[in-house]
Amino acid sequence: MYINLLKGIILIKILSISTLCVNAGDNLLDDYIRYGIENNLALQQKRENYKMSLELLREARGLFYPSMSFNMRYTLARGGRVIEFPVGDLLNPVYSTLNLLTGTQDFPQIENEYFYFYRPKEQETKVRVVQPVFHPEIWYNSRIREHEKEIGQIDIEIYKRALVAEIKKAYFNYIKSGKVEKIIEETIELIRENLRVTESLVANDMATEDYTYRSLAELSAAEQQLAGASGKRQVAAAWFNFLLNRPADTPIDVSIEHDKMFLIPGSSNGPLSVEEREELQKTGLMIEMAADYERLAMSNRYPKLTAVVEYGIQGTRYSFGRDDDFLLASLVLSWPLFEGFQNRASVQQARIKRNTTELMHRETEEILNLEIINTWHELEAARKAVEAAESRVKSANTAFRITERRYSAGQAPLLEYIDARTSMTNAGINMAISRYELSAKYAEYERAAALYIFY
Predict the structure, then answer these.
(1) In this predicted model, what pLDDT tens digit does every residue of 400-414 receive, in sequence order?
(2) Do 40 and 243 touch, CB atoms closer than 8 A?
(3) Which DSSP category does 300 fall into?
(4) Is the pTM above the cut of 0.90?
(5) What does the alpha-carbon distance between residue 309 and residue 332 come to, in Å, rounded to a whole number?
(6) What does the alpha-carbon distance between residue 346 and residue 60 come to, in Å, rounded to a whole number?
(7) Where are the domains of the chain?
(8) Which residue, 237, 336, 338, 355, is most buried by CB atoms nearer than 10 A?
(9) Residues 146 and 318 sit within 8 Å (Cβ to Cβ)
(10) Closest CA relative to residue 383, chosen from 258, 257, 273, 267
(11) What is the CATH number of domain 2-69+131-448?
(12) How many angstroms separate the CA atoms of 13 and 5, rounded?
């Protein structure tokens, strides 16, 4: 993995390399990262949200195609409106005249006809096909869904990059906690050896008995410190396993020599730019989507044209003769002329949203620039802290060895010995913390500069 990171660092002209961890742990950490990307619960939720955006896009694209429906209606009616057909009023005067002219009664008087508006029985069965011909909102809605799908994919990439950094930091924190715990255990062994030497000095009247009690107190304090360090290591392990979606007590492989560190590239050219950050790609897409929302609101001013075709049968009973079927084909034009200025307000809202998104894009760029500058300087400070810690360890170890020989010979007081041992222990702990803090700071800078390459 770190070989791949070095390829990205070539872009900033590597000038120096600080040796901090072995390549043996390289593939191991990469395996953990791949496992975390595959199983992390939050990332799985992001993937499900992306699948939802894909389905919404398919739904939007489906509006371009014709819709077909089968409709069937059978009606039984009784009562209702009555329609009068004045056939008697129309024909009786004519019939009377004809009877008079012919001298006969061949043309009888007839009554007006009355019938119900609803037929007692009626059925209509048809297939209806509707095809949008000109619907601008369908086009813009599809574009918006396309942008949402792309944003969903970018959200996954953003979280993946953050997850990689968190996994690395959690892994380094776990190793750091183990290293601190080991240093304290070594310190306890020194205290026990010191207690043995102290008891020997007291037995030979070369030291007073209070030296023994002071050593016992130091031993208890170290054991208490060890318990705290062990708790921190267990918490660090639980957090690391949580990121990988594993049980909290799952063993963590640390096939890395604690006295070595990962190779942390260095450069005097300063921090990189944020052009590769997915957040900027996301806000750029959000601007395009806001513009499409504005066009969508404006499209409400345009007419809409729809083609409708219906074919079926109708009558008082079900029959399939030539006279029973029917076919209707229509072109339907709808053009909103006035909607109480609602459309104008919608356009203005969409325009404001687009302006807000553009401002958010600029703000995001500034925030990311500030973030990469901060992480760069924190990385450089951590690098210098490691150099100072290495020097401190050398001095503290040398001072302790000298003081230990003097104390064993009865030439140095116990307080001087305790002070030298405490300085050495603190220097060792500080060295472990500084080294792994440097690795963690680089993981943060790697995320801020988008240096990690996914395969």
Answers:
(1) 899 888 888 878 887
(2) yes
(3) G
(4) no
(5) 11
(6) 21
(7) 2-69+131-448
(8) 237
(9) no
(10) 267
(11) 1.20.1600.10
(12) 13
